[in-house]
Design brief:
Layout (H helix, E strand, L loop, with lengths): L6 H8 L1 H6 L3 E4 L10 E7 L3 E8 L3 E8 L4 E8 L3 H17 L7 E3 L7
Antiparallel strand pairs: 1-2, 2-3, 3-4, 4-5, 5-6
Length: 116
C-alpha cells in the first residue's frame, strides 16, 4: 500500500489552531516525484523550535527538530501505514513543542535522559 503523501497538507491545516497557539508556522511543499519514490517535504518554525518533516510514498517519514535556544535536536524515524499514524506523528510533534516531551524511540541530543 502506498502512503497518501498529499494528505500532509490537509493534516497540518486541520490543526491550524494548535500550530497558531504554539506560534508554529508551516510550509508544505508540493509532492515531488523524487526518482519514482514520491516525497512531500515540509518545514516548520517558531521562536522556540525549527524543523522539517519528510514523508515518502513508502510510508517512511523523518521528523527532524532543533530547539532554537540551545540547538537541542530531537529526530525520529516513522513507518506510516495510514493516516492514523500521521496523526500520531503530529501529536508527538505537538507534545514536543508544547511541553518538551520527547517522542518514544526518538534520537535526542543531548541524550533524552537529560531534561529539556
Amino acid at each position: 500500500m502506498d502512503f497518501p503523501v498529499e494528505a500532509l497538507g490537509a493534516a497540518v491545516a486541520a490543526r491550524a489552531e494548535v500550530w497558531d497557539s504554539l506560534g508554529l508556522d508551516w510550509q508544505v511543499r508540493p509532492v515531488a516525484a523524487n526518482y519514482g519514490k514520491a516525497i512531500v517535504v515540509s518545514e516548520f518554525e517558531s521562536a522556540t523550535w525549527v524543523g522539517d518533516l519528510m514523508i515518502w510514498v513508502s510510508g517512511e517519514a523523518e521528523l527532524d527538530t532543533i530547539r532554537v535556544a540551545d540547538d537541542h535536536m530531537v529526530n525520529k524515524h516513522y513507518d506510516l501505514a495510514g493516516l492514523a499514524d500521521l496523526d500520531a506523528l503530529l501529536d508527538e510533534l505537538h507534545a514536543l513543542v508544547a511541553d518538551g516531551r520527547i517522542p518514544h524511540a526518538a534520537v535526542s541530543s543531548p541524550p533524552s535522559g537529560r531534561p529539556l
